[in-house]
Amino acid sequence: MRDTLDRLAADLKLDSPERETLRLRFGLACARRVAHLLENEDVRACLDGLESYLRGEMGRGALNALAARAAALAGAHPGSRSLDGCGHAAVSASYAVARALAGQARVNQVAFKSKAHWAYTARQLEAWRDNLTTPAGTLASHPTFVAEMSGSVVAFVQLNPRAEPWRLESLWVLPECMGRGLGKALLARALEIARAAGQTDVAIDADPNALGFYLSRGARRLADVAAPIDGQPQRIRPQLLLATLPPA
């Protein structure tokens, strides 16, 4: 079902600005699928607020306030005793509500701009477009956090709970916001969530330019995968493991 939702979102081009209303409705539908797992009435109220907005009963300012509230509630959720196959069910459901209210925040733009910061060519970035695109459906099914400044998404992290061990699917920060600790904070939050779900390590398929960052956070380098591109025939992608618990 999740794969089907991902394909549908891609076919509908839900990332485009002109599809915002459809994107919000899609996010609402995804969140409603897991609404029965919600344990916090405040989160339920946020989801009801999104429905009110889509019916024309609420303004943009109120929606933005609800989105911020939902994100805070998802980030502060203590965990649930009710587990599903991917970890804490109520926590995952709270993510779904937060992401639905965010209208699939413009994470893809953040990924492209962040990757381009490493001076890859436009042609190469285009070749990587699919890999740099976060499927809309995963915002409801994968633990995802965003960092915002002045109401705009400037960084995000996503975990893949289908992999074993869980994999760091994305961690991107806009170039103009680098050096402010956003990447460290988002990575730390992702590790907390993975640890709460029983994961001892998170796997990372790293861009070589990000190797120093991950090593500085305690990652262990296990192997390298050949990843040549035009002009960089010897390019590799380091394969890392990062413990979810900090060193004693």
* CATH architecture title: 3-Layer(aba) Sandwich
Backbone structural class:
alpha+beta
CATH H-level homologous superfamily name? Gcn5-related N-acetyltransferase (GNAT)
Mean pLDDT metric:
81
Largest sheet: 3 strands, antiparallel
Under CATH, the topology can be stated as: Aminopeptidase
- Classified by CATH, the class is Alpha Beta
Distance between the termini: 41 Å
Describe this structure in words.
By secondary structure, the protein is of the alpha+beta class. The chain has a single domain, classed as Aminopeptidase (3-Layer(aba) Sandwich). It is built from 11 helices and 8 strands. The protein has a 3-stranded antiparallel beta sheet with strand order 3-4-5, sandwiched between helices. A 3-stranded antiparallel beta sheet has the order 6-8-7. The chain has a two-stranded antiparallel sheet with strand order 1-2. β4 and β5 form a beta hairpin. The longest helix is centred in the N-terminal third of the chain and has 17 residues, at 60-76. The chain is globular and about 55 Å long. The model is unreliable at 79-91 (pLDDT under 50).
